[in-house]
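Dig into what follows:

_____
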Amino acid sequence: MRIFVINPGSTSTKIAVYEDEKPVWMTGAHHHVSELAQFHHISDQYEYRKDFIMKRLEEAGIALDFDAVIGRGGLLHPLAGGVYAVNDKMKHDLMHAEREHACNLGALIAAEIAAECGCPAYIADPVVVDEMRPEARYTGFPGIDRKSIFHALNQKAVARKYAASIGRKYEDMRLIVAHIGGGISVGAHEYGRVIDVNNALDGEGPFSPERAGTVPSGQLVDVCFSGKYTQKQIKQMISGKGGLAALLGETDMITIDRQAEAGEQPCKEVLAAMLYTIAKQIGAMYVAMNGKVDAIILTGGIAHSDYCMDILRRQVEYLAPVVISPGENEMGSLAYNALGVLRGELPLMEYE
């Protein structure tokens, strides 16, 4: 099976061709800020991004001959996890999405390229996957409900792969999956559904290289009304410029990891504090599943760090066996999902 994968990011576009599970061609580019500045809205970047993709395919001599094209899912309305065929309703919702992000272009470009080569277009496990049980949605503040926005694509892919590696089905297991990268999300996966998870996009849960995490609400209100910051600045302090970026003035985990391992302060203490908040979130998800957990999977870019993983493992391994699955692997996860549908191993969902 030949699968074409499209993954638009905020300032990058990554593309790849897979033959079954094997990547046979992969490329991408970071788009200069000055190039993107000419577009007032993300939707205005459509032709620019598509032209980039088609030019790369032409330069590589790759014909539009695929069994499926799959794009990164966008900020749609909340939906159950799975692989979805791109339909007119989805395209309409992405073109009129309340929140703008380049990932909204993934399905739109995939659909046009798929139409040209006469194959289906899919998305899989977008960040808005919402399978939370009712009691997990409540807060004590009427009008504010907890939202499920997290690294669904990688979390579900690594969970499925782990289950397959031990001869079991994802839908038959109870797993805690912690995606640890620029943002951090920890999900309670119970029999194929993520029944509780922190909202990683808006900075809920552990603090991370770029996000402030959950902060005392009263103190946050004081900061908001101090007159020192605009609404935009506050939101950036919560998500984008919070966490390690604010505490250390640095988000390069290779540098932070090296300095912390060498005992340099404040890196050592701040990194230990971040890992502590992750461990607490894992503990919360353990409670969410009544202490019945088959394994804890640690994934994402920071899972490459032996130093961080050794610390975090010691904090949670008494709860359940710990499995390390480093990297975000969005491209491989998308291909994995498309292949699963083509082989009849995964159901194809309809977006409504």
